[in-house]
Amino acid sequence: MYGSSLSTLGEFGLIDLIRTRFPQPSPPELGIGDDAALLVPAPGRQLAVSTDLLAEGVHFDRSCGPDRLLGRKSLAVNLSDLAAMGAVPRWFFLSLALPAGFPLAGIEAILDGLAEQATDHGCLLAGGDTCGSKSGLVISVTIMGEQVPELLVTRSGARPGDDIWVSGTLGDAALGLTILMQNHTGLADGSAAEFVVSRHLDPTPRCRLGQRLAESGLISAMIDISDGLLADLGHVCRQSGCGAEVWLKELPRSPAFEELAGVFPDYPWHLAAAGGEDYELCFTAAPEQRAAIAGVGKNTGIPLTVVGKVTRSFGRVQAIMPDGSLFQPPASGYTHF
Amino acid sequence: MYGSSLSTLGEFGLIDLIRTRFPQPSPPELGIGDDAALLVPAPGRQLAVSTDLLAEGVHFDRSCGPDRLLGRKSLAVNLSDLAAMGAVPRWFFLSLALPAGFPLAGIEAILDGLAEQATDHGCLLAGGDTCGSKSGLVISVTIMGEQVPELLVTRSGARPGDDIWVSGTLGDAALGLTILMQNHTGLADGSAAEFVVSRHLDPTPRCRLGQRLAESGLISAMIDISDGLLADLGHVCRQSGCGAEVWLKELPRSPAFEELAGVFPDYPWHLAAAGGEDYELCFTAAPEQRAAIAGVGKNTGIPLTVVGKVTRSFGRVQAIMPDGSLFQPPASGYTHF
Hints:
The structure is a homodimer. By secondary structure, chain A is α+β, with helices and mostly antiparallel strands. In chain A, 35% of the residues lie in helices and 23% in strands.
């Protein structure tokens, strides 16, 4: 219908293509096609809004993974922010800056990935913007969710003595990125390397878990792990006016991580403690809630693990090695500038 | 405090810098600093949401104008979308992708321009994202406004026989861009050239006018003129299931436009009829509302002019030259791909 390149499609053809791929909000709401989208927030709910911009050469390299997964991930990182507040995803907005000659098949694959992720999380595409780019691909997503105000969870409620919990396993995504950067290609299906690479390329936002934890009223603070556990825990500590102690030997690691750890001269604690992009949840709760929280983990099928303790040392995040010594983290998180 | 470059400032230093420059939403709302912003929509209002992404080398050239005006414009284009719905601006989100070594003074100037525009329109910065860019500067803004549902104006309500109105004057911004692209520098203060260039670099979003028109209940459809009058009127016609006839001799032109028109071999009708980025409003209304609408123009101090008539010819936008012949527009609007 459109030929194979963006220039035959044109801007309005691209908008039509997007519109056909996503179910639209229905009246009295209004999606793509006017100056602004019109949305109806549910009465009595607060809106939670987050935005992330992904730039080629900074956040992703198209040669490292399929475009479909890039589409999935660009919504996943935003869904993960809503998960960390316990909010229910409702709508998202998509802005694409596309280099001239960008292959139409690539755009379609990105849209397919976005549509899969949106459907999985009940989130409607309500608008956006498309334009050219003189350089690489830019994907900017703004997501909006809702929750009753009493149930929303922020970064600022942690109290000294609280347990520090994490969901799932840590370090897989950072290990997967390490493998991708060494140009490993053709990873065997079902291999440990394939697993950790997929954790980097196709992270699972913990939306249902975040909502269940928020609704349970059991937890005091929450954040998603995008910059690495220690860096993100640092944000919680600063906002809550406290500190944290993390026991590295307790960090949950996947069988694949354990299998691959042997290729490092030393055990790669830094990947589990400070590696980014796992998009697991880190939350705090009083110790007396331990059994009830374990129950939430069981009901959602996602392992939840206590990995440390909130302390009184303002802003200080200490990580303890298995031998009792202090872990010296490498520069944590990605440095943008 | 920070040195003069982005790399000494760092990502969190930049976020702090942004936070100090913009008043933040106050409890129970939550702005910058958590996984998502938390906003409280007014009861009974619909949300209007729009997003625009501006990319260096596509939408702007930093050598053509001061960074402060770039900041003003990046919010103005979004405010203009809300103006066209009659919505009242409330919050915006700002994503910046910045090349390494981007001058700190440039960032501060962009933020100053954004803050001026936000203050003028009572719009709070509630969140955003900052990251590096391997190429040019990217500014992505998502804006949210509110209005009671009955007062919101869409593109789809125009009816055959309605008058077609525009606000302000047309063609200035496109003429200003023409002058900028010819590398005119050092334009004399108060000159006609300086005026039209400023209309391109620093457009005025017609928010108050859009709200007054919406509240008046007098109008049937509205759009902002970003792609050129004829192209934008085409959107209204397609959404409303009608056509349009535009009389070029009625198009309101500024004294500066008239003064500069003489440098073209022919009178530059194409700039007034099809030039982009004036960010004026185009709206439709039944002829019996003419006097009342003129009153709204008088009250807001913005000239409003009838420039044509809605017709029954679905999707057909005809522009009539002063001699009665049909205007043949050049390819209208900017082609992105």
